[in-house]
Amino acid sequence: MMTEHSAPMTESCAPMTEPCTPTTELVEVEVGPVAHGGHCVARHDGRVIFVRHALPGERVLVRITDESHKRFWRGDVVEVLQASPDRVDPPCPVAGPGGCGGCDFQHVSAQGQRRLKAEVVREQLDHLAGIAWEPLVEAVEPLTGWRTRTRFAVDRPGDDEGGSQVPVVGMRAHRSHDLVSLPEQGCLIAAPGTPSPQQLEEVAAQGSSDEIRVVVPARGKPVTITTREQGAELVQELCGGHGYRVRADGFWQVHPRAAEILVGAAMEMLQPVAGESALDLYCGVGLFAGALADQGLDVMGVEQVDRAVRLARRNVPKARFISAPLAKALRKLPPAVDVIVLDPPRTGAGAQVVGHLAGLGARAIAYVACDPAALARDLRTFGEHGYRAEAIRAFDLFPMTHHVECVALLVKA
Fold this sequence. Notes:
Among the domains are: 118-142 and 254-412, Vaccinia Virus protein VP39 (Rossmann fold), CATH 3.40.50; 149-236, no CATH class. The protein contains 9 helices and 20 strands. The chain has helices spanning 110-129, 197-205, 228-231, 258-270, 287-294, 306-315, 326-329, 351-358, 372-384; strands at 26-34, 40-44, 47-52, 59-66, 72-82, 137-138, 149-155, 168-172, 179-181, 211-215, 223-225, 234-239, 242-247, 277-281, 298-303, 320-323, 339-342, 364-369, 387-395, 405-412. The strands form 4 sheets. An 8-stranded mixed sheet has the order 6-19-20-18-17-14-15-16, with helices on both faces. The protein starts with 25 loop residues before the first strand and ends with a strand. 49% of the residues are buried. InterPro entries: MeTrfase_TrmA_CS (IPR030391), NA-bd_OB-fold (IPR012340), SAM-dependent_MTases_sf (IPR029063), TRAM_dom (IPR002792), U5_MeTrfase_fam (IPR010280). The active site is at residue 370.
């Protein structure tokens, strides 16, 4: 996922999309399979319960946290009665039920995390696209200290009773506005160079923002963002010896190895040849366009965020770029093309875009996705237009969370 407007994030950073209805009810259940979204499926008296902090095959005691839906409830594990061999003690003291909503797989061994993610990708491809895929998520180090772009929430207590107004910095609990203070060690997955909790509190005390963003670029000092002006600062990122300028508040992959891995996978799949024509769609600041242009291809990129396009033109002067939503720019694309890199937002490209791209006759398409359900839906649509998935790779670019990144190769059937 390489668009500036759709950076993958942990759930602690995500907006609360549905209100929770907490209860005090406790139920004992046997945990079923993992599901898309970081939880496992259990049943109690015929009702589905989506359980966080559980593992398949475990017997657990669950506190129901949301019973507002008729078809299902949500719950958190409060006691493990029979543990899975993959269960480990979370390395962060604020992980787990009632804690930070971000690292939802800290209770799982590294191998277990990859198996769970592989099962989710396998199930989504099978269920939504009818594609049989041998489950394998490739390990990517490091498992901690990898997140180069982190958002911290800030709460500013009132002084109605004459108390201190010292702000508190932390992460939001899952599906909640409740703030969980950072542990003394700071965020476990934040990259080296991220300010300490004390330093973040000092930053918060100097401003009025309810959020602090920290960017640790490949080159240069970390950037702390609390204002629009700070977000406009340019940072330097690298991939394959190619430098990229990115706004501090713009999008770049959060794992320090992600850009190299995804570009490498896409280029290996496409086998680009100098002189061919190529499209880099949802191109952000031109990551894939740079790799394609460096190999001598004639490249056009499309991105809807104008400020990202302006940087892409500087980053990859050999390529041409269009600033527009892709669905509105389809008529501006060439009538035929040799290869395509497609890296849509979390919701996927959609039927209109897929149908048009399939008509361009590309010999190979590399589809990059951070959501396996969206990937599967679009692969199904490509299949309806004469393209098949010849290869699919998955990478553990978000360790300790349920997120996973995939790259698929599509060729004419």
